[in-house]
Amino acid sequence: MLSAEPKEYSSLPLTVGIAGAIVVSAFAGWLALKGNAVSGDGDQPAASPVAAIADPEPVGAAPVDIDAELRKARLAADADLLVSPAEQNALYFYGRVLAADPQNPVAKAERDALLATLSLRVDDHLAAREFDAAYELAVEASRHSPEHPLVGEMHGALNDYVAAIAAEASRLATNGRDDDAVAALAALERLPGLGDDYVASARQAVVDIQQARLAAEQQSREAAQRVAEQAELGTAQKVRDAIAAGNFIAPEGESARDHLARLDAGSEHKAELVSAFRAALLASIETLLEAGELADAEAQLVAVRELGVEDEALAALSADYEARLVEREKSQVLPLTEFIQLSAAPARYPPTARQADTTGWVEVAFTVTSAGRTADIEILRAEPGEVFNSAVIAAVETWTFVPRQFRGRPIDQRTAARLVFNLE
After folding, report:
1. CB 382 within 8 A of CB 361
2. CATH homologous superfamily for 333-421?
3. How many CA atoms lie within 13 A of 311 on its CB side?
């Protein structure tokens, strides 16, 4: 909603420039009031956005019965016929009295009170956004008492209301609400009594604001683009520096991977840097595999796959990693309790050892193959000597197991057991 109350607006340079444009161009198009009415405090501009008011009605030269005219004025006032109908309203009769006797104190006082009432009604109409009604009252008041200060106040209120709408249109345009600004200008044009120059200047002020705002927005976009381009160049350089330092995926936040992720997909540097990052990672993974640093190699393999490029080089490194991982797992010696044993024939007690009441034990290592059989049987330690070794080997050769699973497939796995020989 548009308001007749003065408002504070932005102090941006754009708004300051527009405010000057409104003051200079709008006031230049205002029409002077007939009779050069002024406000009560003497600060009202000599020009007004409201067009000129009709000339005051001439008072006839016939003799005037002052008492009779005063009675007519009071009766009209009591009937609320303050400014109309023509030649039958209170202001008209007071005017006749004052034309005959300009210093008549009763007529002056009562007319002033009537004008004060009209001024309040003008304010009430403006507060209710009833500009037509307020304007009509001001027109009639000016017709009968054009030079009275209260008439000047009425026109000042009208001017403030009109100026507030023009200022609102400018504010809306400043804030980018162009459709609302157009609607405010349309409301301004519908108000009666405005000079064409004033409306044209208000429209031009809004156009100037829009053009200045659009130019400022374009400059802002260009500045933001320059900042973004500089930031992109800086990020691209950080990627290169991190690659050169070997900081491929660590430290967190400062790695080549992290800096690369900050580049927009449409960056002209992205493809080049992704290629350089990938090549550096592949070379690093190969070195790590040769050094047996499988955990670091795996982390970098994940980073390479995140780039979304699969080729023979990556496939070969992945296969090498899997093979080394399986080989490392196979080389571990797990306790026998880690396996599910399907058959476990006990070792036969050697007859000679039984006859000699010999007891002892044997620690044996072997491989549980991916087929669940045993292989590569190896005696680790035995007591006494080699008394029970053959019996242990013969027994272990018959054992079967559920194969050990690793990374989704069965593998050969080393294990060990201790077999005890006791006559009891």
Report:
1. yes
2. TonB (3.30.2420.10)
3. 8
